[in-house]
Design a protein that fits this description.
The complex is a heterodimer of chains A (253) and B (224). Helix content of chain A is 6%, strand content 51%. In chain A, strands 3, 4, 6, 7, 9, 10, 12, 15, 16, 17 and 18 form an 11-stranded mixed β-sheet that branches. A 7-stranded mixed β-sheet of chain A has the order 2-1-5-8-11-13-14, with no helix packed on it. The chains are: A mainly beta (253), B mainly alpha (224).
Chain lengths: 253, 224
């Protein structure tokens, strides 16, 4: 590794194979970001993102680009949590995710948590572009510090666009060096795990689920478009996952 | 430009209905997250750097003449809680009535026609500032200060907090209000050149989640 950090961009592309399944004509691993095709189910292809080394570390620039074509169905998971660590290289690390889903395509993006370790400094930028008629389940979870540890600095922006219009644009900033009040009663209130689940479905145009409180610090809310957001805070990763899983199961039922 | 116009717009007695909203403070008090001046200060600081920054930037951009329709859409995307979107549009409609009566303007009329149920409050605030001959910084100051003064006066009522303590909180966060206004104006200038996507999107998960719970209460002192 150089003092400038590691630069790596992994790419995947899913296409309907014309026989009722989904092909993966693009599956490019890069550096520490390894992509593996795993057994899918029905017409859905599955890909696991396997971190072949720790990171991102300070100065690293990781990126993942995923494209789902018309009629293709893709599910992406990860083998383990992503761990933001302090590095020898100066400066923040970056993790950029770019996702495109065409009309009639479906992406279920369900990776493991991102853990912000003490002393790390990571900026995550996720941009999802959906064509009208695309379907999406997108989950992201941030865990502030390993057990009992102070978190690092984390900034994470999630932008979801549908047909060129922003449906959701949210940035969380937490950890040492973040703007004041990040751990206070308006923002995180001492919670150490936070997560978002975005579900976009064309049928929500006709019938959008109403808002719902999901416990003390979690709620489902309809967005200004055919989409809902589940926003959740929890004391730890396990309880956060349970909240998001339950919410997703209810939306799927 | 009249300096006093800024005082008129920023005055808590300007009839725009803000007094009926606690900015999430009522839910935070009920949850035991604000029990006194210290909790109020942490709440105000967190709100200021998140939704406060976003609102101030939207207001500043509207004051600069950035297309209010795209600003309203940007506000929607940055306000995932439906309860908060409803509250923001209600406040926008009330402010619109007061602003049109005070500073008649073609631009305010056009926005009111476009959103009969109300545009997002910061967008209306920015256009009101523009109609009053004020600038982007003035609009951002109104928005950012209101973002902390609203919860402070609400907590005085909710907890019978000493008003001197609440005012002390406002004085202590004043320096950060300045910083937020600077950042808001900077991004508004960028948005005027390159579109609204560059506007900040800082989020406050507890405010978003708390607002949905609060909207479902059958009895409450404040509308949001």
């Amino acid at each position: 590794m150089t003092a400038a950090g590691v630069r790596a961009t992994a790419r995947l592309g899913a296409r309907a194979d014309g026989r009722g399944g989904t092909a993966l004509p693009v599956l490019e691993s890069a550096g520490p970001l390894a992509l593996r095709r795993t057994r899918g189910s029905g017409d859905e292809a599955r890909v696991m993102l396997v971190g072949a080394m720790s990171g991102p570390l300070g100065g690293d620039r990781f990126a993942v680009e995923a494209e789902v074509g018309e009629g293709a169905r893709l599910r992406v998971g990860s083998a383990a949590a992503t761990i933001a660590l302090p590095g020898q290289a100066k400066g923040e690390a970056r993790y950029d995710v770019r996702i495109d889903v065409a009309a009639g395509g479906e992406l279920r993006w369900l990776p493991e948590q991102l853990i912000s370790v003490k002393g790390s400094d990571l900026r995550v930028s996720t941009r999802v572009d959906l064509a009208s008629g695309a379907r999406l389940v997108f989950r992201e979870e941030q865990v502030l510090g390993r057990a009992g540890e102070e978190p690092g600095r984390l900034r994470s922006r999630l932008t979801v666009r549908l047909d060129g219009r922003a449906l959701l644009d949210q940035e969380v900033a937490c950890g040492p060096g973040s703007p004041g009040g990040w751990d206070g009663p308006a923002v995180l209130g001492g919670h150490r795990a936070l997560g978002q689940l975005v579900v976009v479905r064309p049928e929500f145009v006709e019938r959008l689920p109403g808002p719902k409180v999901l416990g003390e610090a979690a709620a489902l809310t309809p967005l200004a478009g055919p989409a809902v957001l589940v926003s959740a805070l929890a004391p730890d990763a396990l309880r956060l996952r349970r909240l998001l899983d339950e919410a997703l199961a209810e939306l799927d039922s | 430009m009249s300096r006093a116009a800024l005082l008129v717009l920023a005055d808590g007695r300007f009839p725009a209905g803000g007094h009926a909203h606690s900015g999430g403070a009522e839910a935070a008090v009920k949850a035991g997250l604000i029990t006194g001046a210290e909790g109020l200060e942490a709440f105000c600081r967190g709100r200021l750097h998140t939704t406060g920054l976003v609102s101030a930037a939207l207001a500043a951009a509207a004051a600069l003449g950035v297309d209010p329709l795209s600003l309203d859409a940007a506000a929607d995307a940055r306000t995932p809680s439906v309860a908060l979107r409803v509250a923001s549009r209600k406040l926008g409609r009330q402010l619109m009535r007061a602003a049109r009566a005070t500073w008649p303007s073609e631009e305010l009329d056009a926005l009111a026609r476009e959103f009969p149920k109300g545009a997002h409050q910061p967008v209306v605030l920015g256009l009101a500032a523009r109609a009053a001959g004020l600038g982007a910084g003035d609009a951002a100051y109104c928005s950012a200060y209101e973002c902390v003064s609203g919860p402070a006066s609400a907590v005085v009522r909710l907890l019978s907090l000493d008003p001197f303590d609440a005012t002390g909180v406002l004085a202590r966060v004043a320096g950060e209000v300045d910083l937020v206004v600077d950042a808001a104006v900077e991004s508004a200038v960028e948005a005027a050149r390159g579109g609204v996507d560059v506007l900040p999107a800082a989020s406050a998960p507890l405010l978003e989640v708390g607002a949905e719970g609060h909207a479902a209460w059958s009895v409450r002192l404040f509308a949001s």
